[in-house]
Amino acid sequence: MKKYPLTTFFIIAACLTGSFFANNAVAYTEPVPLSKYLYYARKSADWTWEHYDERIASWRENFDPENVFGYRPPGGLLEMAVIYAYLYQTESRPEQAQRARKVLLTYDEFTKAYPQWAVEKRPDYDDKPPVLPDFFSAMKYIRAYVLLKDLGVLSSQEKKRIETNIAESMAYLLRSQEWGPMNRAALRAESLAWAVKALPQHPDADKWRMQCRALGDDNWGNWEIEDASLYNAVWLYALCGYAYTQNRMEDLFKTPEMYYYAQYYLQLFCPAGMIPDFGDAQWRSNWNRFLVFF
Questions:
Q1: Does residue 165 share a domain with residue 197?
Q2: Number of other residues whose CB lies within 10 A of the CB of residue 140
Q3: N or C: which end of the chain has fewer CB within 10 A?
Q4: Which 3 state secondary structure label does DSSP give 190?
Q5: For residue 266, what pLDDT is reported?
Q6: Rg of the chain taking only CA atoms, in angstroms
Q7: What would the pLDDT profile of 132-168 be if each residue is shown by its tens digit?
Q8: 123 and 233 part of one domain
Q9: Residues 221, 156 share a domain
C-alpha cells in the first residue's frame, strides 16, 4: 500500500466536505488507509463540481441580504477548490487546476448579489462586502491560491485580482477582535497565517503576523475553553491548520495538551464511530474535522 506523509493526510482530511458523506458514517475497527481518505476527498470535490450550477442556483434563490451575519457566499466551493489544487499538485491533470482556478477568479463576483442598502447598514463594511467574509472558510481560498501560484497556473493579472481579494478580506477580519483558546480565535490565526504565507511582502503583512502570533500563542499549548463537541472539532481543526502553515505539525502533536486531547476524544468515541454531541452541538456534525486529528 502506498504511504502518504502526515501533511497529505491533513490536506485530505481538512478539505472533506460534509455534504457528500453526511449520511455514510461507518464504525471502523481496522485502520483506514490514507488512500481511502484521498478517494473520499476526490469524490467530494467531483460531486460538488458536478452539482456546481444547481448549488449556485440554490444559493441565489435562498440568498438573504438581511442575514444577521451579513454577506455569505455559496458554500462548498472553496473546499472543492483546495482539493482540486492539491490534486493538481500531485497528479498534474489540467482540469483539476482549471476547476480550482475558476473558483478563485469568480468568487468575488458573488458579492454583487449583496445590495448597496444592505452594505450601508453594516459599519464593518466599506463600499462593498468582503470577498471572504467568513474566517471559517477564508483559509481555503488562500491555501488554494498558494498552491496554484506555486505551480505557475495563474497569470500576473489573475494573481493581482486574487491577492486584492485576500488583502481586503484580511482588513475586514481585523476590524473585530476575539482572543483566547477557542475556535474563533484559532480560525482567525489560521486565516492570517495563510495570508502571510500568500502575501509575505504585502504592506499589511507585519500587522497580520503580529495578530496571527498573538492569537496563535493564545491557543498553542493551552487548554481550550470550548464546552461543545462541535466547537471542540472546529478549534482542533483550526489549530492543526495554523501549525501546518508554520511547519510545526509534529511539534503540536508532541505538546502535553494534544496528548491529553488524543486520549480524551478517543475515549469519547461511541460504538457508531462518532463522538457524541454535548453542549451546543448536533449529533454527527463536524465529524470530518476530527479526521485531521485521528
A1: no
A2: 24
A3: N
A4: helix
A5: 87
A6: 19
A7: 999 999 999 999 999 999 999 999 999 999 999 999 9
A8: no
A9: no
Q: Is 212 helix (H, G, I), strand (E, B) or coil?
A: helix
Spell out the SS3 assignment of 128-144.
CCCCCCCCCCHHHHHHH
The letter for the amino acid at 134 is D
Does one domain contain both 146 and 56?
Answer: yes
Which of these three, 130, 149, 176, is where a domain ends? 176
Average pLDDT on 26-44 reads 80
Grid cell listed for 236: 482542533
Residues 206 and 87 in one domain: no
Look at residues 178, 170, 189, 184 and name the one whose alpha carbon lies nearest to residue 252: 189
Angle, to 10 degrees, between the axis of helix 229-245 and the axis of helix 6-15?
130
Q: In what helix (H) or strand (E) does residue 293 lie, and over which residues does it extend? A: none
The answer to whether 132 touches 162, Cβ cutoff 8 Å, is no
Number of folded domains in the chain?
2
Compute the distance between CA of residue 89 and CA of residue 244 in angstroms, rounded to an integer: 17
Q: Rounded to an integer, what distance in angstroms lies between the CA atom of residue 83 and that of residue 86?
A: 5
70 and 112 in a single domain? The answer is yes
How far apart, in whole angstroms, are the C-alpha atoms of residue 267 and residue 261?
10
Position 21 pLDDT exceeds 50: no
Structure pTM? 0.88
**Residues 145, 194: contact at Cβ < 8 Å?**
no
Average pLDDT, the chain: 89
Q: Is the pLDDT of residue 19 over 50?
A: no
How many whole angstroms separate alpha carbon 238 and alpha carbon 268? 20
Indicate whether 21 and 151 sit together in one domain: yes
The reported pLDDT for the residue numbered 7 is 46
Q: Which of 160, 176, 192 is the endpoint of a domain?
A: 176
- Nearest alpha-carbon partner for 186 in 245, 249, 240: 240
User: Residue 240 above 80 pLDDT?
Assistant: yes
- Location of C-alpha cell 467574509: 133
